[in-house]
Amino acid sequence: MNTQTHNQTGFAEATGSTAAITGAPTSAEATPEPPNSVEDVDAKGRPLAVVPARVPWLELGIFAVIAFGLAWLVCLPLWLSGKGLSDVVAVQLYGALMMFTPLIASIVASIVQRRRARARGEALASVPRCFGFWPLRPFGRVIWMTVAAFLGIMVLVVLGYFLSAAFGWFSLDLSGLSGFRAQVATLPGLDSVPIGLAVIGYLLVMVISAATGVIVTIGEEFGWRGWLLTSLRPLGAWPALLIIGVVWGLWHAPLILLGYNFNRPDISGLALMVGGCIMVGILFGWLRLRTGSVWPAVFAHAGLNGSAGMLMILFVNAGASNPDPALSMFLGVSGWIVSAIVVAVLMATGQFRRQPELGIKKAEPLAEDAPQPSAHAQTVCST
């Protein structure tokens, strides 16, 4: 929990090629375009491209009401008990349940959307395609991007702490690992374990723990980067990403207003969360758009949740004062800067313009479709 597109029916990469025309034939002599080598509908006649023809505003409203309403309902015991965040087990339990509210909201909104589309005689892509969880094709692109996202977000978290230390917001102890040693000292039987071996074991536990977090991050990402991003893509990639970032941040209000993440139980804490969700949401949204799949975002989210706190313990100086999470956390200012740099690189390399669909390959032009040189060109080439 710590935590794009034109008004058209989709971005199918399959394209047909027109036959080459040499000379200046009349319209009657023009060679017709061959059919696409890749069908634009599935076996049931549903479009393969996922972007709807229009933004489903009614369904978006339904999504927001359910997601926000259920989030507050789930966290209500934390408010009524008077304990707030002091009951760690309750916070973890209700926080995990809260993460499934976007999924529930997206399922209801999707059902309404499809019934209304059928009433209008419109066809929508299949549910697995709209949510981005199937098919896993191209397999290499989806799987390797998922692995890269899961581990890459951890690298960005480390860079965030290093940047924070460079600005004086976070005290590092890379030589002595005093923060980590202090944590190990609280665990019986580990005081005799060599520090190098302890670090390896700690990182292994972190990776495994983060991977198991996929169970709950599915709840959020199927909602945010699955259904919601697909539904907002007629607005354009950037409007969709920014809107989702704001909505995602505000959705965290039931916990943030209790002091979760930033120790600021007020509007400033919520504003920080919105800022963090916008920046991280752009990265997660790019993963969905670039691969067509929601799985890289699911695993990136799990990687962030599972590594941010544990990596802080590994690097922090035990003798220094507690860092301000608003500055040092990845959802705080240091993380905003790191995310902004990554986004700038992606933009400069044109990565946001590449938005393939799952299971659709670009058609290769047939040999007979290749342009033929004109007679003049042949003469020039032969001299």
Jot down its keywords:
383 residues, mainly alpha, 15 helices, 59% helix, 0% strand, globular, disordered N terminus, disordered C terminus, MmRce1-like, transmembrane helix, protease, membrane, endopeptidase activity
Mind explaining what this structure looks like?
Helices cover 59% and strands 0% of the residues. The chain is globular. It has helices at residues 57-80, 88-98, 101-120, 127-131, 139-166, 178-185, 195-212, 214-232, 237-251, 253-256, 267-291, 295-315, 325-328, 333-348, 375-382. It has 383 residues and is an all-alpha fold. It has one domain (45-360).
Q: What form results from the Cα inertia axes?
A: globular
- Outline the low-pLDDT stretches: 3-38, 363-370, 373-383
Multimeric state of these chains?
single chain
Mean pLDDT: 87
Number of domains: 1
Number of strands: 0
Head-to-tail CA distance between termini: 69 Å
What string, H for helix and E for strand, traces the elements in order?
HHHHHHHHHHHHHHH
Give a short account of the largest sheet.
none
Share in β-strands: under 5%
Q: What's the Cα radius of gyration? A: 25 Å
Tally of contiguous helical segments: 15
Helix content: 55-70%
Class computed from helices, strands and strand pairing: mainly alpha
Pfam families: Rce1-like (PF02517)
Keywords: Hydrolase, Membrane, Protease, Transmembrane, Transmembrane helix
GO molecular function: endopeptidase activity
Protein name: Membrane protease YdiL, CAAX protease family
